[in-house]
Amino acid sequence: MESVSDPESYISMWFKGAPLHEIGRENVKQFFCWSFLNKSKYGLLDDLELENYADQLESRLGRKLPPGKGRAIPLNLTLDPVHMLPRPLVWYLIVFFVDAITFCYLRFHSFQFYRVSNEQADGDFGIIAVEMMPDSTISSMIEAALLVDPVSILLHLPDVAYNFTCRQPMAANEYQLKYFASTDPDVSRTLARTFFWQENIIWKHELEGRHITIVLCGRDLITNTNAVGQYVAGDKSSKWKKRDWKGIGVEIIWFNELDHSQVFELKSDYDHLIKVLQRYALISDTNPGLEQNGNT
Length: 296
Fold this sequence. Notes:
Elements: H1 7-14, H2 25-37, H3 44-61, H4 89-108, H5 136-139, E1 144-148, H6 159-165, H7 172-182, H8 185-194, H9 197-200, E2 211-217, H10 225-233, E3 250-255, H11 267-286, H12 290-293
Parallel strand pairs: 1-2, 2-3
Helix pairs in contact: 2-3
């Protein structure tokens, strides 16, 4: 709860935007049962732990929760029904051709598919991951990384889950997200049945001791990028948004006017990303060591 800056918004969004007076103490315990214990129901053995969680939330709220159950319904991704929209065959044909063209383009530029295990790893390879959650197999081998619009940082906050699955779209980009991502059969099934935030979250201490650049966009429609930036920078002001990038330690590049993934659209924007990768490649080639460059 220490990383939750707005506890009222936190609990309201996890209850699909319900007002606080509709969220009872038993509702909160049921939610914590799912989110912390990965259970749909709790018994006497779990009750003491859940009561402690509810007490901590009340302490952060500065008020008591209404006793019993209210009308609010929690957002329990792995228990809620799966909402998906089927796609026509032509859609999959389009995806096939786009994938094929991308594959050919990458092979033309000397990229190749490469799977590495702990036994094979020699620390001298790079990874391009379009979407990636934390992976303990490769985590210890990563010296430098560029994270663009990461959703895994502060994943325990409700923004990603709510914006991706519950928000009623109003703007064009929100309709685009709902049709092309949120209700895609594979994406919706994966989120609804295999998504456990404890397994996918990235904490700040896991970034330390590496060269990490995190790209955040001010108009991101999925992630609370201000909260992520403040958490990573350890600064509740906005000074971290204007810091010069140096390529050492954990840093943030902020694009104030861009939405999620829009950094890839204009050369003037993604040139910043190329600069980061070139710098990290140079670090890998010269292998100076993190101790020599320093940490943040």
